[in-house]
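ARCHIVE CARD
Drawer: 12
Card no.: 0347
Subject: one protein chain, sequence and derived structure
Cross-reference: see card 0346
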Amino acid sequence: MTLEISKVTIPSHPGIYIMKDSSEKILYIGKAKNLKNRIRSYFMKNQNYKTQKLVEKIADIEFVLTDNEEEAYLLESNMIKRYRPPYNIELKDQQRYTYLRITDEKFPRLMVARRTRTGQFFGSGKIYGPFTHGSSKMLSIGLLRKTFKIRICKRLPKEACLEYHMGNCEAPCQFVEAQTRYGRHISDLESILKGKQKLEDFVRKLESQMREASANLEYEKAKEIHDTLHRLQNLQVKQKMEIPRGTDEEYFGIKIKEQTAHVMGFRQTHGVIKDRNKFSFDLVGDNSFSSFLSQYYSTNPIPKYIIVSEIPNQKDILEEVLSRMAGFKVNITVPQSGKRKEMIELILKNITLAITKGMEPEILELQQILNLQSPPVTIECFDISNHGEDYAVGSMSCLVKGKPHKSGYRKFKIKTVSGRDDFSMISEIVKRRYLRIKQEKTKMPDLVLIDGGKGQLNAALGALHSIDVNLPCISLAKENEEVYLPKTAKPLVIPKSSQALKILQFARDEAHRFGVAYNRAIRKFT
């Protein structure tokens, strides 16, 4: 039974909404600038089929308010990873980011936070993260412990251990002054992990304290701060090692087919494609390109430049959220020219290849160039081979998925035309070919190709019209490799490097070769 939305009190604030079924299972989690407007839109009649199915299962909706859309983005992402609702976009790669945990012991420790498969964290304490560059954070955890004098012992020893003598811990297990300072160390560490205080600001603060201690002749304290600064410098070096990853670019293309979005991403490092990922998700609720990118970058390194085939909705907010997570300005852009545009076109071609179940890219390119309703999987090409006025034959080559289909080749003796009249000969063999197919009710080709110019094309079109057969038909003139289309005066010029043009040329050359061989055979035995 569908929820009666008119009886639900919905706030007009930014936040997230949690849709549940009758058994309290979470179906979908979404975000909105205005929760009231967004929720009501689900219950309108113009929703797609999959969203309607979601709405039919909703028995209850909970709301969590946030101060702004940016906070709603982050909260939505975290809750999706935690609860994994069936109607949300879920990216399987959940382990590329790291969370850190400060335990709730009397003298807390800093640890890597481990998670169960359901997303719950092991152990108690405060959780910080996610930190997208997981491996570097795990390497840095030792430096963080040493810098902020955080103990590593599982149980407090009865007396100071080796860590104290190495200067890595102040031994709160033994010294009262160390116990007093320990809380301050934890607070400083938390301010760094929360992002409230940048590491550079903290360094400047310590440098000021070191100069003050030195001026007050507190040399031991100044040396201790100096050692801390040295460790922080090492930590900063490790962080700088991560920065080049942020200068790389990531490319995403998206295509929609039957209420399903297909996305492909290429990551480019130093001008080289290093990785490729494919994703798909249903267009249910707020599932969109924008929400996909938000989820993706909660578990993957964030680059400075995200190059896309189309601008995601709420682009400015998404850029702000990603910039906050990354610690640097993130730009999302659609390229208009150059190498970036070529990369996006390559991705879109690959997506089309994937969703058409292995169709060759050049076939799809030909479909696009000729504006055909379906891919020209089967192409039949006609040619006339003349030798004087007495010897003229017709030939037809057949390509399937761009490859020669030899059993589909046909040869024709000219029966109704005398002399050298190529137009009439083309008309005869095209009419004979497709009248027979029509009578036998066998499959027609996807594209008819004629060797010649506008005159040959018009002759073929006239033949098709005379037998009431409607097929895509074009011609290829050999002199300048120009393609003539019906009802178009100027020929289409396809770049010489195009694989689509090469398919047409190959079909034409095969028809010519087959026709010449047949002509020679006739003359030989005459």
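Annotation on reverse: Residues 369-524 form a domain with the Nucleotidyltransferase; domain 5 fold (CATH 3.30.420.340). The chain has four domains: 5-83, 98-245, 248-355, 369-524.
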